[in-house]
Amino acid sequence: MAEQGEEDREYREYRRLEDCEEDSPPGEEEEEQLLLHVTEGPTDSWHHIKDLDSFFTKISWHSPWNGFACVLLSDVLELVQFLFVVTFSTFLLCCVDYDVLFATRPLNHSHVPERAKVTLPDAVLPAPQCARRLRGSGWLLFLLVLAGAVWLCRLVTALRRLVGYWEIRSFYIRALGIPAEELCNHSWQSVQARLLALQRRQPLCVPRRELTELDIHHRILRFRNYTVAMVNKSLLPVRFHLPLLGPVVFLTRGLQFNLELLLFRGPAALFQNTWSLRP
Asked: What is the Rg, in whole angstroms, of the alpha carbon atoms belonging to the chain?
């Protein structure tokens, strides 16, 4: 009984974060919009934001990246990087004669001596031969189609994300009074101060109460805090006792990604959205 009481006391140390849509009017739960706009004269104001977790996370990403242009450039470069990796890998598989490149077979040119130095153009196959090798490999065509589908999904995700960041850009300019060209001169602390002042003028969430810096950080780091708490309470299997080595912590990027997919972001996750658990 004493051990159970001690365990209950430890679990109570993690205070539940209040949900900002507990006082939402009936029917509002079905809305999917991130921001609810209410027009007042020439400018827009942001009232009763449904998903404060995503909203504050995008604000925190927008600030250190110095605005929308940097976020846009980052997404474009990621898409270009994916295309480059796939294209270059296909080129290395289909368009390079490795026997010539590694000099295991002599060059079949009458004007080149047998012991001549091999250059890169000598090892590159002509375009028609490269295309024939590509069409003759069924598994490679399948992988290219799969890579194209993944790239299209990433493109759609990037476009949706950019639409959300454009909303955040408008929020910085119209609600917080921070122009895009002056964003690099503002620290995250000053952005938080303007957010708290805005909450006092017009409520960002439904309960009419003041936000604090801790509220903002709790919502930005909600999933990470859950993960840290579960590791601290030994609910996640990341500590092992190996013979001769003793206790070992094992948490790779792949394991962390799978845990987040199972607990937070997958179709069978504990969370039904970014801020509330399933019933």
From this structure: 27
93-102 contacts: CB < 8 A, separation 24 or more? 93/137, 93/140, 94/125, 94/130, 94/133, 94/134, 94/137, 94/140, 95/124, 95/125, 95/130, 95/133, 96/123, 96/124, 96/125, 97/123, 97/124, 97/125, 98/123
19-35: pLDDT as tens digits: 554 444 444 443 334 44
> Residue 236: is its pLDDT beyond 80?
yes
Residue 192 domain-assigned? no
Its domain, for residue 68, covers 64-104+119-186
In this structure, of 35-44, 47-56, 196-205, 239-248, the range with the lowest mean pLDDT score is: 35-44
147 in a domain, yes or no? Answer: yes
Q: Which pTM value belongs to this model?
A: 0.62
Coil, strand or helix: which one is 249? strand
Helix (H, G, I), strand (E, B) or coil at 244: coil
Q: Which of 115-119, 189-193, 201-205, 238-242 has the lowest mean pLDDT?
A: 115-119
What count of other Cβ atoms lies within 10 Å of the Cβ of residue 256?
13
If one counts the domains in the chain, the total is 1
